[in-house]
């Protein structure tokens, strides 16, 4: 009876023991898992810290760990080297100690935001001080590291990039632009630029202010300026403008009245020149300047009523005033210098006081840019009243042998008795404009991809040779000039597989290969696509075939690969003579083209000759020994 009463309690005790064992086992398992997770997290943290340290050590950009009080807690070699410190030296400093005094305030607002929790990252530019005290511009970018639980900022991690070279370049550009604008404003000159490709005219800020308008307000319509001209002057100016646009005058120059925004009239001297035309001679671009000559015109009006005894001085003053803003030298009848303005002193390198009374050649020595011959500046013949002599190819040679390209205008001074009284030489530094003209001329005559002559310049050269051959009666059979038409074999496959970039790269290599086997006097051109042409300036038809074979060998031997894939191409060549009896240029090209077609039909990689209009195939032969070739 008693045992039966204890059985339920025993069972309950056993059940409790089983639960206790299970709980204990679970706790041990959880503890093991927790300890494993902690170990894993520690390893990951250690690995992360190691990667961070490695990145800091190897980074080419300065990296610094900075406390909230500005102390440099840790830095990398790049930042220390940037400022000329060792790591130990720079880590003993604060950011405030290495910051330029004028830039201390930069970043204070950012720092306040970081501490307040409103800013988590930052970037700005400021100057630091190297160890030797010299400043260096840097771009600072970084972020704040916060406590994960409280969000409290702990320290900053910053990247510091040296941008001193960029800042200095920007300062030089800004200084040059300031000087240019100051020079325009100081000379009272505005600049206009008519570009038909952009659809209108742009004006400098000085130009707009001259007429009371804001910068850019007048830009656009290329004909608007004509509507602002005084009605009495408009037709004369329009005629001068049309004459230059049609190519009948070398430059445009006119004096006229223009309406100011407030309604009054001002006198303008407008000078301009077309610097680019298309193949049909139509204007593409023109550049010029405007000068406010109102005061000069008023002075001329007053001088008109002056006494006859002041006529000589009046004329000299008129021409001098006309040249304000340019370099001016005046001489007397004996060619002695009587006046130099500051611009002339600067360009010649001779002070005005030293030049006065000296012969002109002692101060001003100009030569022709192409021939090197001196450009004479002399008085007109007796009884003759020579017009202004202009030269846009002049080069000024200074006493120290330095040179600058100039545009000069030489005007004689003739008094009312038709007597020669001296000269006024007006010249401008034209170096940059002439360099631009050369660049434009080169671009107009050369293929942009290969640098070879383009089709239009090549055709002109062919026409000149044909004309020369007719004058000299050269047949072109035995010697003289030979024309070579080259068409690449299997080039389309390169374009199809490698794309146009591969094709362009290969065309450059082909151009180099052709140029490399020819003489310096021979002319090479790219006619378009994968077609090339050569003018052999001297040599027989047999010599032309040898040259053609050399070109084929050079092209076939090009080691060209694109994206790891090699490409092999060839060339087929047609030859034709250039002579008095060979017909027009297009006929010669057509014969060579037909010969090239025959070479392709014969199996490619061949040379075909088309003498007297008949095409004969000449297949490639093995190279001959040097002795046999000679």
Number of helices: 20
State the end-to-end distance.
139 Å
Helix content: 40-55%
Strand order of the largest sheet: 12-11-16-15-14-13
- The strand count comes to 24
Shape: flat
Low-confidence blocks of residues: 1-6, 613-630
Radius of gyration: 41 Å
**Number of separate structural domains:** 5
Average pLDDT reading? 79
Query: What oligomeric arrangement do these chains adopt?
Result: single chain
Q: What top-tier CATH class of the largest domain fits best?
A: Alpha Beta
SSE-based structural type: alpha+beta
CATH superfamily of the largest domain: Reverse transcriptase/Diguanylate cyclase domain
CATH architecture of the largest domain: 2-Layer Sandwich
Largest sheet: 6 strands, antiparallel
Question: What is the CATH fold-level name of the largest domain?
Answer: Alpha-Beta Plaits
Strand content: 25-35%
Note the topology.
Layout: H1 2-58, E1 62-67, E2 72-75, H2 77-83, H3 87-90, H4 95-98, H5 108-116, E3 121-129, E4 135-146, E5 153-162, H6 164-187, E6 189-195, E7 200-203, H7 205-210, H8 224-227, H9 231-245, E8 252-259, E9 265-277, E10 283-292, H10 294-304, H11 311-322, E11 327-332, E12 337-340, H12 342-348, H13 352-355, H14 360-363, E13 366-368, E14 389-397, E15 403-414, E16 420-429, H15 431-445, H16 455-472, E17 481-489, H17 491-517, E18 523-528, E19 531-536, H18 541-556, E20 560-562, E21 565-567, E22 570-578, H19 585-601, E23 607-609, E24 616-618, H20 626-629
Parallel strand pairs: 22-23
Antiparallel strand pairs: 1-2, 1-5, 3-4, 4-5, 6-7, 6-10, 8-9, 9-10, 11-12, 11-16, 13-14, 14-15, 15-16, 17-19, 17-22, 18-19, 20-21, 23-24
Helix pairs in contact: 10-11, 17-18
